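Before relying on records like the one below, remember that each one covers exactly one chain. Contacts with other chains, cofactors or solvent are not represented anywhere in the record.
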Amino acid sequence: MAVVALTALLFTGGSVSSPQADASSSKGQTVEASLHQFDLDKLFLKHFNAENTYDHIYHLSETIGPRVAGSEEEKAAAAYLKREFRKNLYVVKEQEFSIPDRLQGTLEVNGENLAIGTATGAAPTSEEGLTAALYDAGLGAPEEFSEEAEGKIAVISRGGTTFAEKASNAVNAGAVGVIIYNNVDSLVPLTPNLAGTEIAIPVVGVSREDGQNLLQEQEATMTLEALTNQTSTNVIATRKPLISKPNPEIVYITAHYDSVPGAPGANDNASGTGTMLEMARVLKFLPIDKEIRFIGFGAEEIGLVGAREYVNQLSDKEIERSVANFNMDMVGTNWERADTLFVNVTDGEPNLVWEASQKAAQKLGYENEIGLKRGGSSDHVAFHEVGIPSANYIRQERATGSLEPWYHTPFDTVENISVDRLQVAGEIVGQAVISTIKKDFKWNKGKRGEINNLQDEEIYTEIK
């Protein structure tokens, strides 16, 4: 009767409430034995489908597009996550939070918009923008500014002095704006850090190539607006253990869903978000003994704001119950040189997440595709800061640690996504998670166990 009750609940809903469900330990043992018949590894591998992940990536990056923190597009992405989680019967909560004020805008030269990084602490332009002649200020030292700099936009190379000193020297020379370009090759624009210094004129950064090209131009138009009083959202989907118990341990599966301005964010980070959503679809029906929390974080790109907001709201008891955080950020690039799925840990030391991932990769025959690496710059850092074992999965080149060349650019599109690599990531992370959440199920003698309802007709047919 207990086996019948369990499988019926998996398909039809409800909890064990009949006298039979409250019966003797022998019937409880029958339920426990039935749970052990399931090979969770094989079930997960059979049903995880990277084509579904790709569909999520397409919707987030192509249908919605760039999902800048605080924007309407980021809100649309949050709504999409909420719908997908609810479609799979999860209890979903939204956590809204304020995000820091900042600048956002454009730099136009000869009708072309250049990719820029904006400096926090600099001034916005007027609504119509700032158009002015360009002035080559070298490294931005005081002696490199002449009277001709007055009323112009200073173009300055990185190096020699701090960004704040360069900008301050430009202000003192009467410049009306500053463009600082990188001194190393990168497709990603430089984001000048003014280190808390307030600068009375707009300051932006560009790549080395764009900066050197600017030196050949006559003028540019900067438009920077102040973004204030904005909010973002964390989307949290929870799955309780199959057999209810007080204060279960918690495992977090996470990814950020926002992107940088101008970037569709297919790999960064619709790939991690889509993989998380597909894992949620598969794990919704598997018998587990821990609580799983799937979290889509907002506002990662402006400083891990969503993740820190979430972790800061955890109670001491929740932190004590927390086993691990599996975070995914940029797992699907088709860049040929990105040969390794790194498991980035903040302090570089092996932890539970790495050990589970290593064992999963060996079991799956992917041991040559993963590596342990010290790395922050993603949402796993917030969990590490409070003592929760955590790691971030990210595809990079093993030899150099390089990211794909279209990172944080308009070329981060779905055409540069590999379905095969999404499958590898999903299988490795999925197996690592399963090894963490599947333990021996215990049925307490003389106590009632409640079975949480999770439905899937296809799997029900397999496990009944």
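The chain has three domains: 2-36+442-463, 40-98+229-437, 102-227.
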